[in-house]
Amino acid sequence: MESRHPQASAFPARPKPAPALMCRGQDLLRDRSFLLMGIVNVTPDSFSDGGRFLDPAAAVAHGVRLADDGAHILDVGAESSRPGSDPVSEEEELRRLLPVVAGLRKALPEIVLSVDTTKAAVAAAALDAGADMVNDISGGTFDPAILSLCAGRGASVVLMHMRGRPKTMQDQVAYADVVAEVAAALHTRAQTAKRAGLGPGHIVVDPGLGFSKGPEHNLALIAHLDALVSLGYPVLVGASRKSTIGVLTGAPVTGRLPGTLALHTAAFLKGASLFRVHDVKEHVQALTCAAALLGA
């Protein structure tokens, strides 16, 4: 009689080993199959938790909670990039950001700190205050000096795909083949980063779910994430609480954790290594089980 239980080989095969991600002279992915990047928004208008952690003490306390829940990296951002958002000045971004970076570095000396910015001057000040890496939603296109800055400081950089700017990006969602076009664009940005001096283990790519993309594009990118994994860099995915889940299920922002876990688990099985998340503890459980499944 045929077994009713599928064999391990029936499950998707995750590419191994993952490319390196260097921080402080160590490969963060050497002994881990995934890294969780906890979100610390120091903004009044982010789509999910805007204003909740605008006070530096509240933001630091939130970061400590995320670390206690199992976050490997904390990503601190002081400029909202939600669709339709307006940019903030360099001075305002620094005013919001630096006390939180300094506070988190003091409270959590061992945690990896990422700064979510597109401005080289802001990145430089954050690195001076204790940040370790830079998460640039523009992939180094808004301020190209950010790439040479990271190279000179030995900081890793996340290069995300986006068309236009947050204010107007959802006006640029026409693709003939979203997977091929995003993969080609990220390859180009990674090559530019290399020419700026960023070496092996210091580049991460991110398809930019929800940035100049509709729900169908976001789903296609996750379903065919192997095209991005094949570029040879760690892949970061950030589907946490995003509108695609709301479109698919009708769930409000505060009710999108199940959909987030489903999309991130699928992305993990396709080879993603980093996940930018609001809900860390739940992701630790889900991805630990997914990793165990692949080793069964």
Map the helices and strands.
Elements: E1 22-23, E2 26-27, E3 35-41, H1 56-69, E4 73-77, H2 90-107, E5 112-116, H3 120-129, E6 133-136, H4 145-153, E7 156-160, H5 178-195, E8 203-206, H6 215-223, H7 226-229, E9 236-237, H8 243-249, H9 257-269, E10 274-277, H10 280-294
Parallel strand pairs: 3-4, 3-10, 4-5, 5-6, 6-7, 7-8, 9-10
Antiparallel strand pairs: 1-2
Your description of this structure?
With about 300 residues, the protein is α/β, with parallel strands linked by helices. It has one domain: TIM Barrel (Alpha-Beta Barrel), CATH 3.20.20. The protein is built from ten helices and ten strands. It has helices at about 55-70, 90-105, 120-130, 145-155, 180-195, 215-225, 225-230, 245-250, 255-270, 280-295; strands at about 20-25, 25, 35-40, 75, 110-115, 135, 155-160, 205, 235, 275. The strands form two sheets. The protein has an eight-stranded parallel β-sheet with strand order 8-7-6-5-4-3-10-9, with helices on one face. Helix 1 packs across helix 2 (about 90-105) and helix 2 (about 90-105) runs parallel beside helix 3. It is globular and about 40 Å long. The relative contact order is 0.14.
Task: Give a concise summary.
By secondary structure, the protein is of the alpha/beta class.
CATH class term: Alpha Beta
Please identify, by name, the CATH architecture: Alpha-Beta Barrel
As a percent range, the share of helical residues equals 25-40%
Compute the number of structural domains: 1
What is the helix/strand order?
A: EEEHEHEHEHEHEHHEHHEH
Number of strands: 10
Question: What structural class is derived from the secondary structure elements?
Answer: alpha/beta
> What Rg, in angstroms, do the CA atoms define?
18 Å
State the fourth-level CATH superfamily: Dihydropteroate synthase-like
Contiguous low-pLDDT stretches (5 residues minimum) are: 1-9
Largest sheet: 8 strands, parallel
Q: Number of helix segments?
A: 10
Report the average pLDDT across residues.
91
What is the CATH topology descriptor?
TIM Barrel
Q: In what order do the strands lie side by side in the largest sheet?
A: 8-7-6-5-4-3-10-9
Shape: globular
Question: Percent of residues in beta strands?
Answer: 5-15%
Termini separation (Å)? 22 Å
Looking at how many chains there are and whether they match, the oligomeric state comes to: single chain
